[in-house]
Design goal:
single chain; alpha/beta
Length: 159
């Protein structure tokens, strides 16, 4: 039994690969055998590498995303996931369009951060390094709550 997490952004070269790499880095070792994490983009730049600033920002938090290659989101990816985490409401709309109804297990990643007013995580694409660093920090702020949620879901799925 594996619990599958899918991170979604637009191009799959900034936010979602950072979220994928950072979640995997922060995920407790005991959970790694039962959790898989991947990412895709609603308009994924298929095969492209992660943006160099995204690689640097993720590395500052201990995650190596240098080998990442972008993927285009498709309905099969959504259906095979147990949890789909989007960066913006727009991505949730695209996810719902792909599967022709509301995806009950799609959420905004930012909802897992404590005291965050806006659950959307802004796209740093085309911005200077500090925007990527801010984005990575926002993702990291979501991880404790997200990991707790995943743990609960894994336990529920196992019972």
């Amino acid at each position: 039994m594996t619990f599958s997490v899918l991170m979604v952004c637009t191009g799959n070269i900034c936010r979602s690969p950072m979220a994928e790499g950072l979640l995997w880095k922060w995920l407790p070792d005991a959970m790694k055998p039962v959790v898989s994490v991947r990412s895709a983009g609603t308009h994924g730049l298929h095969g492209n590498r992660a943006e160099p600033f995204a690689v640097r920002a993720a590395a500052a938090h201990g995650a190596d995303i240098s080998q990442h290659r972008a993927s285009v989101l498709d309905a099969g990816m959504v259906r095979s996931a147990d949890l789909v985490l989007a960066m913006e409401k727009y991505h949730i709309d695209k996810i719902n369009d792909l599967i022709f109804f509301r995806c009950k297990y799609a959420m905004l990643l930012g909802t897992f951060a404590v005291k965050r007013e806006n659950p959307e995580i802004e796209d740093p694409y085309g911005s200077p390094l500090d925007a990527y660093e801010t984005c990575a920090g926002e993702i990291v702020a979501c991880l404790p709550g997200l990991i707790d949620h995943i743990r609960e879901q894994v336990n529920r799925k196992a019972s």
